[in-house]
Each structure stands twice: as structure tokens, then as C-alpha cells.
Amino acid sequence: MSKIVVIIPTYNEASNISRMIDVLVNEEFPRIKNVEMHLLVVDDNSPDGTGDIVKKASLKHKNVHLLSGQKAGLGMAYVRGMKHAMHELKADATIEMDADFQHNPKYVADLVHAYSEGADYVIGSRYIPGGSIPKEWAWHRKAVSYWGNLFARVMLFLPSLHDTTTGFRLTRVKGVLDKIDLDHLMELHRFAFKVDLFYQSVKLAKKTVEVPIEFGTRKEETSKFSLKEMVATYKVVLLLRLRASEKLLKFAVVGFTGFLINLVLLRVFRSIGFVEVLAWFLSTELAIVNNFTFNNIWTFRDKKISGLGEIAKKFIEFNITSAGALLIQSVFGPLGVRLVGEKYDFLVLGFVVAFLVLPYNYFMYSRVIWRNKKK
Ligand code: GDD
Ligand code: MN
What we know:
Blueprint: E1 2-10, H1 14-31, E2 35-43, H2 50-60, E3 64-68, H3 74-88, E4 93-96, H4 107-116, E5 121-125, H5 139-155, E6 169-172, H6 193-204, E7 208-212, H7 227-271, H8 276-299, H9 308-340, H10 345-369
Parallel strand pairs: 1-2, 1-4, 2-3, 5-7
Antiparallel strand pairs: 4-6, 5-6
Bound molecules: guanosine-5'-diphosphate-alpha-D-mannose and manganese (II) ion.
Residues 9-11, 13, 42-44, 71, 73-74, 77, 98-100, 102, 165, 167, 191, 194, 218, 223-225 line the site of guanosine-5'-diphosphate-alpha-D-mannose.
């Protein structure tokens, strides 16, 4: 049976937390069949006594847990909670959720349902049909949320996902959460860390699903979200874009050297009398070897393949993958040359590489050859 841990960070939530525990443990968890549901409250020694309330509840219910610590920001609280859920509670998945009922506990069952159907990452989305942000919010509050979210979607090239900043999500541990270096997420003392966590999770998850949530208004106390939080969120999005683009840029540079090698060797082989198909085939293969080597020691340095066994295994994988590129070029190269003439072979090569081989290679390299290894 799967074990899912709902992680709720709290700071001065005494007026919400006992009702939240009650609703989750007595109403919502029992509705969820075939999954062992737990609640982990990560409290930062709230002066209003939130921790004491949770402590009492944890003595009564064995699936309620309290983790207390010094206040070091929302991200730090989640990192502590996620590590505890993974290593101590042996969770198969974790859920991020707020204590203040802006996240209606009834949606926990929806997140778990999507997970049971095979999703690795489930996003409680406010911006898909059925989801919403509070009607009561002032227009500028709505605008901040809407534009921040849109900005992240566009910058991170995630058009198919509609809510990049939601705080209500489920993450599978195996293959997703356990591969993320939680201690080095950006802006861990702020809410903005969520965007880094989100982006990495989306990249690792094989299947990401959005389920609609209606984001409620806060009943008690005031929100801890501020202008500083907003600026930090934009900063994280930009840094993530840069980091992702750095790889793409290096990949393009390596690709360009491969292109030059390909072109020069093509003409060399042709001049020594090789038939057209063989000239394309050989020059392409050698360019691929060049690209593999430099991508391994430079572009994907962080996931560098080393050790004899690993290299051998990856080399076989790489050759299978490359067969696709080889095939694409050996077919479309001669075809293009026949179309525009041998004189313009550089145009044909450029076209085939840029529009067919490069996208294919980048996908295969980042998803198959240099995919994330378990940390
Ligand atoms: N342990 C701990 N430490 N908990 C904290 C801290 C902290 O420093 N700061 C906030 N929390 C807890 C709150 O007690 C609450 O349970 C939850 O984190 C969210 O805090 P709110 O103050 O209610 O945040 P919000 O409603 O403005 O922010 C919402 O929108 C953000 C952006 O869309 C939340 O849904 C966030 O999760 C979301 O990132
Ligand atoms: Mn809130």
C-alpha cells in the first residue's frame, strides 16, 4: 500500500491548525482508499502555540506528526519536512499544502487520485477550468498572481502547464523528489523556492497532471506573501531560464563544431572518390563522435559519464540513439543535394542539422543519455 504524507508548514496558525487536523484525519483521509495517509506539520516554534496543538494531536493519532525547528523561511521548512517524510516516514509521495484553508482539504483526494492513476507530479491548478483564484481579491492582487504565473510559463517554456506558482501539489518520491538536491534550491528562505522545486519536478516527472483547485480566501490572520516575495519569484524564474539556456547554448556550440567537422569530412571523402551516401554516412558518424565527447565533458558536465562500465553501457545507448541521427542525415542529405545541387551541400547540411537532427539530438541527449542520475 502506498504511503502519502501531507506536509503542512505552519507559522502562527493556532487558529487554523486544530480544525485542519480534524478535517484531514477524520473526514478526508478516511475517504481515500488503499493509501496510507499521514499528516506532517512543520512548525517553526510558532509563538502562538501551534506546535503544542499539533503535539497533542500527534499523541492521539498515530498518522499525525510534528516536526519543530527554528524559523528559517518557508523553503527551509519544506526541505526539513520533505526529508523527514522521505527518510523517516518512508513516504511514496508528499503533498505540499497550506494550513489556512485557502487550500480546501477536499482536494487532497483529487491529488491522490491522479497519483494512483500513474502521475508522478500533480499540480493543484487555479488556472484551468474548474479552478479559480478568489473573486474577492482586489484587481491588483489578481494581476500579480496572473502575470507572475504567465511570466513563469512563458520563460520556462511550459505552455501546457497553467499554474507554476501554486502551493498545492503532490510529488512522487521515487524518481522525482529523491533526485532533487533540496538543500541547494534557490531562495529557500522565501516562497520563491517553490518555482525552482516546481521546474525541477516537472523536468524529472514522467507524467505531470493538473487538477483544478479553487483557491480560497484566508480566514484568519494575514498572508505572509509580500512584494519581496514577488520580486524573488521573478528572480528565480530568470535564473532558471539562464541555467537551462546555458546547456542549450553549449549544446549549440558543440553542434556547430560537429557541423564543421561534418562538412569538411564530407568534402574530403567525396574528393577521394567515396560514393555520396558513404561520404555522408562516415562524415556524420565522425561528427557524432565529436559531439558526444564534447557534450559529455562540457555541456552535460554535471551528469558526466565516467567509469569503464558506465561508458560502455552509455556508448551502446548512444550508438542506438545516434542511428536515428545517422539515418536522418543519410536520407535527407543526399535527397537535399539532389534537389539543390552539390554546390549547395552546406545549405542542405545546415538545414537538416538545424531542423531535424538538433532537436532530435537534444531531446535524446537530455532525456536518454545524460538524464538525471539518482543522487
Ligand atoms: N514553517 C513555516 N515557516 N511555515 C510558514 C512560513 C515559515 O517561515 N511562512 C509561511 N508558512 C506557512 C503558513 O503558516 C501557511 O500554512 C503556508 O505556509 C502559506 O502561507 P500564507 O501566508 O498563507 O501564504 P499565502 O496564502 O500568501 O501564499 C499562497 O500563495 C503562494 C503563491 O501562489 C500559498 O498557497 C503558497 O503556498 C504559494 O506559494
Ligand atoms: Mn494563505
